[in-house]
Amino acid sequence: MEIKYWFIILAVVALLNLVVSIYLAKRDDLEVFQKAAQIILVWLIPIFAAIGLWLFHRSQDVPPRSSKPLGGGSSSSSNITGSGD
Question: Rounded to two decimals, what is the model's pTM?
Fold first, then answer.
């Protein structure tokens, strides 16, 4: 029974390492040496390095901006001018 739990834990850690390794390999902002060194770290220090490097690189990414701002504010179509009476 204990062997099944260890196998599940090992499979989850291996899957996490694999996902982060692929994520690091696809990054365009890293040189080949940096990619290799970080992937080696992920496999040498499994959980901590994988989560740490993933969070670090995610914080460096620029979040996508929407094309139009949301909310109120002035609009050029709301400026109504009149001559009065």
Answer: 0.66
